[in-house]
Amino acid sequence: MSQARNHRPTIRQQLSILVAACVLPVWLIAALMARHAYVTKLDQVSRDLLENARAMTMAVDRELANVEASLSALGSSPSFRGRDFITLHQQSKEILKNYPGADIIIADRTGQQLVNTYRPLGSKLPKRSNLDVVRRIFEEGKPIVSNLFRGAVTKRPVIAIDVPVVIDGVVAYDLSMSFPSQVLSSVLQSQNVFKEWYATVVDRNGVITARTRDLEQFVGKELTGDLRPALSRSSEGTLLVKSANGAATFSAFCKSSFSGWTVAVEVPTDMALANIYSWMRWAVGVGVAISLLGILLASWLANRIAKDIQALVQPALAIGSGTVAPAVATDSKETSELAEALVQASQLLQRRAAERDEAERQLSLTIEDLRHETGERIRAMEEVRRQEQLLTQQSRQAALGEMVGNIAHQWRQPLNALGLLVQQPLLFHELGQLDREFLQEHVAKSMAIVKHMSQTIDDFRNFFRPDKEKLRFKVADEVAKVLSLVDGSLQALGISLKVLQEGDPVVEGYPNEFAQVLLNILVNARDAIAERAVAVPSVEVRIAEQGGRAVLTITDNAGGIPEEIMERIFDPYFTTKGPQTGTGVGLFMSKTIIEKNMGGALTACNVDQGAQFRIEV
């Protein structure tokens, strides 16, 4: 026992754990905040990169569009119609004042240069090096922005914008301006908001056309790494890629709809996330310092609390021995109040013991009263159960007697027909007309009647079979089954039966008990019609579905239910038929089956010329 006590945690340990438990959520929240800040920073960097890429793409498109506009203006010069290439050379020089380092070339359909501002007028000029662009200009008649290529004269990597010169509706010349990639690099640098970021322009072939850094090292080389497949999959986006030296960089790219080129903006991850890393280091340092300070404070408080609690051991032992606890002094208010409470508790124990003895005596008396009352309630419940069983038995006996009458009605006509068939062989034998064909036909008719009577027995037997569990059944099927049982007795009284159906509702419950309810109501309607000798008797059964529930109404024209007994027709043992013909439990059991067993409602009311019973399940 003492060994187990030694293994229990001390107050100092528990307070340290408490501080750790309090600090842990703070660390978790701090970690979540740090992760949120990190993710937010990543999103911000991605958005800024993509916005910068879009802005640079627009700036590049704007520069290319200005070049195209200048060329289109030059292409409208009347000097082309007169093949005045000297004037065109001079006009080109004027335009190039706005584009330092650029050259203008005029070529014919074969790609032969006619004017090249890079060479003096009259110099021998070669064919264009990018003949595919020349061919497309004459075939398509639309401006074209070329990929990066080396000029046939300058031998330097250049970019060209070609526009067609149309004379009389026919493309006559290819007018092109080629300029070095440094022009686009200058455009990128002017648009670069964050100077530590760098941008790259890639042409349609994936070749680096311009760059804000290390232009001579990268221009003319194909783009490599993870960025190349990303450009082929989407027109714009962001991703994390590995550079050639293994460093991770954030990249964003945007493809120009004007030229088909792509501008990519990149920044090293360490540089982009430098601020968030610094903030996280500062937050971790402050958190560690606060946590250590809290643990030291908890240890000091634990020593004080443990001392005060140990002082309460002697008063507690005194209470256990039944003596008055001695007063002790402690440093904290709570332990002082606890010491006083221990003294008061020792004084109250004797009074509570006496009160407990009195309460136990009162409890014994109360238990005896409850035992007697419980016995009375059990006997009352058994009597109610016996009465319910008696009512159920009487209801089934009444229904059974009714079924015997229905069997008699159902069998009367088949028996008469069977009697006639029995007499026919003797008559045909005396007439000399008895042969095998007659006997076969006679036997077939007799067996059909016998089979029909046997089926009637099966129907009545199944009708009284009790349902063990709830089933889903169609209301129309149970109506048809009951009508097949009482059809003979209704026809014997000349009662016209009409069945109307709107929809095919399905309910969950006990089909045989539901059929018994319908049988009770139909028998009551039949008896009322017979008792009152209705001239043109009729019964209408209507099946419908309203508000997701099945509704069945049975309406007769027997004159209705007297108002003075309307409220009593569902009471047990209440009947208007007399003791010889009614027990008064049919409608009572019907209401019990519908409302208690199946959770529905059974009501009755008078309508024009008769009564109507409504079953809603």
Automatic annotation (TrEMBL):
It is an enzyme of class 2 (transferase). Its EC number is 2.7.13.3. Residues 406-617 form the Histidine kinase domain. It holds the Pfam family dCache_1. SUPFAM superfamilies: ATPase domain of HSP90 chaperone/DNA topoisomerase II/histidine kinase, Homodimeric domain of signal transducing histidine kinase. Its main location: membrane. InterPro entries: dCache_1, HATPase_C_sf, HATPase_dom, His_kinase_dom, HisK_dim/P_dom, HisK_dim/P_sf, Sig_transdc_His_kin-like_C. It catalyses: ATP + protein L-histidine = ADP + protein N-phospho-L-histidine. It is a multi-pass membrane protein. The chain crosses the membrane at residues 15-34, 279-302. It is found in: Cell membrane. Keywords: ATP-binding, Cell membrane, Kinase, Membrane, Nucleotide-binding, Phosphoprotein, Transferase, Transmembrane, Transmembrane helix, Two-component regulatory system. It comes from the Bacteria. The keyword Transmembrane helix applies. PANTHER family: PEROXIDE STRESS-ACTIVATED HISTIDINE KINASE MAK3, SENSOR HISTIDINE KINASE. This is histidine kinase. It comes from Geomonas propionica.
